[in-house]
Design a protein that fits this description.
single chain; 337 residues; Creatine Amidinohydrolase; four-stranded antiparallel sheet; 19% strand; binds 2-amino-4-trifluoromethylsulfanyl-butyric acid; binds cobalt (II) ion
C-alpha cells in the first residue's frame, strides 16, 4: 500500500483532503514516537494496559452543589496561594475528607477480577451523590469520569473504561469529593485477586513512603523535608520516585499552593505552618521514574511499562505535628497532633 498524499482523500472517511483533515495530527504523532528515548521504544510488556471504550458522561442531580468548573471545565477563580485555613474552613475540610474516605471504601469493596473500571465509576459516582457531594474530577479540565483508576503501569489519572480488572492487577482508586464548599482527596492502591510478591512489595513500600512523608510534617519544618523522607525509603528499596506529579494544597480549590514534591527538591523551602492543608500522594515505580502520556492526554504510564503504585492522604498541619484528615473512622492518628 502506498503512502497517503496531502491531496488524497483522508483515511478517516470524512471525504476531505488529507492535508485539510488528519495530516497534521498524524505528523505530530510520528514525531512524538521518533523522539521517544530508546528505553521507551524498547519497553515491552505482554500484559500492557490498553485504552478501552468510555461510557457517556454521568449526570449529577441539580440539587448537588457544584464547583465553579463543573459546567465549563475551567476553574473560574485565580489559583489560590497557600492559605492558612480558618477554624470554619478546617471543620468543613474534616467533613469533606471523611466523606471522601466513605466513597473510597465503597469503591474498594467493588474491586474484583472481571469488573470493569467503568462499573467502579458508576458505583462510585452514585456514592458521591448519596452523600450529597459532587465528584470533583468530573469535567475538571475536561476529565470525563468521577474517579481515577490507574492499573499496573498507569502512574495516575487513568480514566475508567471498558477494561475488566484481571487477576494479578494492581489498581489505584483516587477519589475526590466536593462537599460543604471543600474538596477532600485520597487514594489507595488495591490488589486484584492473587498478586505477585514483587508487586505486593511495591504497594507496601509505596504506603510506607506516604507515611514517611506524613511523619515529616511539623510546624517549622520545610515542604522539602517531606520529599526527602519519601525518596529515602523508595531508593532504599530500589524503586523510582515520580517527579512530574506532586501533592498539592487543597480546600475551596481542588489544586492550589503549596506544591509538594515527593522527591528531595532543595528549593522547596516553604515553611509548614499550623492550619495549612495539603495532600501527600507519592507515586512509586518499580523501575524508571519517568512517564509517557497516552493520546487521551490524561493517562500517565511508566516509560518502561513496569508497575507503579500510589497512596494519598489529605493532611492538616497542627500546632504539634500533623492530623490526617482522610483516615477511616475509628482509626487512631499515627503521629503527634
Ligand atoms: N485526585 C487527583 C489528585 O490527587 C487529581 C485528579 S484530577 C483529574 O490530585 F482530572 F485527573 F481527575
Ligand atoms: Co487524588
Ligand atoms: Co491529590
Amino acid at each position: 500500500m502506498s503512502k497517503i498524499g496531502p491531496n488524497d482523500e483522508c483515511w478517516c472517511g470524512s471525504g476531505k483532503k488529507y492535508k485539510r483533515c488528519h495530516q497534521s495530527r498524524d505528523l505530530l504523532k510520528e514525531l512524538r514516537t521518533e523522539s521517544l528515548s530508546p528505553i521507551a521504544r524498547m519497553a515491552s510488556n505482554p500484559r500492557q494496559v490498553r485504552p478501552g471504550a468510555l461510557s457517556p458522561m454521568r449526570a449529577v442531580p441539580p440539587h448537588i452543589v457544584r464547583p465553579d468548573y463543573a459546567l465549563t471545565g475551567k476553574p473560574q477563580a485565580a489559583r489560590q496561594k497557600t492559605v492558612i485555613k480558618s477554624a470554619d474552613q478546617i471543620e468543613r475540610m474534616r467533613s469533606a475528607c471523611r466523606a471522601a474516605r466513605r466513597v473510597l471504601e465503597i469503591a474498594k469493596a467493588a474491586v474484583r477480577p472481571g469488573i470493569t473500571t467503568d462499573a467502579i465509576d458508576a458505583i462510585t459516582h452514585q456514592a458521591y451523590i448519596d452523600l450529597g457531594g459532587y465528584p470533583s474530577t468530573l469535567n475538571y479540565h475536561g476529565y470525563p469520569k468521577s474517579l481515577c483508576t490507574s492499573v499496573n503501569e498507569v502512574i495516575c489519572h487513568g480514566i475508567p473504561d471498558s477494561r475488566p480488572l484481571e487477576e494479578g492487577d494492581i489498581v489505584n482508586l483516587d477519589i475526590t469529593i466536593f462537599i460543604d464548599g471543600m474538596h477532600g482527596d485520597l487514594s489507595e492502591t488495591v490488589l486484584v485477586g492473587e498478586v505477585d510478591e514483587e508487586s505486593r512489595r511495591l504497594v507496601r513500600v509505596t504506603h510506607e513512603c506516604m507515611m514517611r512523608g506524613i511523619a515529616s510534617v511539623n510546624p517549622g519544618a520545610m515542604i522539602r523535608d517531606i520529599g526527602r523522607g519519601i525518596q529515602t525509603v523508595a531508593e532504599r528499596e530500589g524503586f523510582g520516585v515520580v517527579k512530574a506529579f506532586v501533592g498539592h494544597g487543597i480546600g475551596e480549590q481542588f489544586h492550589m499552593d503549596p506544591q509538594v514534591p515527593h522527591y528531595y527538591d532543595r528549593s522547596q523551602t516553604t515553611e509548614m505552618v499550623p492550619n495549612m492543608v495539603f495532600t501527600i500522594e507519592p507515586m512509586i515505580n518499580q523501575g524508571d521514574y519517568r512517564h509517557v502520556m497516552w493520546d487521551d492526554r490524561w493517562t500517565a504510564v511508566t516509560l518502561d511499562l513496569k508497575r507503579s503504585a500510589q497512596f494519598e492522604h489529605t493532611i492538616l498541619v497542627t500546632e504539634r505535628g500533623v492530623e490526617i484528615l482522610t483516615l477511616p473512622d475509628g482509626v487512631a492518628q499515627p503521629f503527634a497532633h
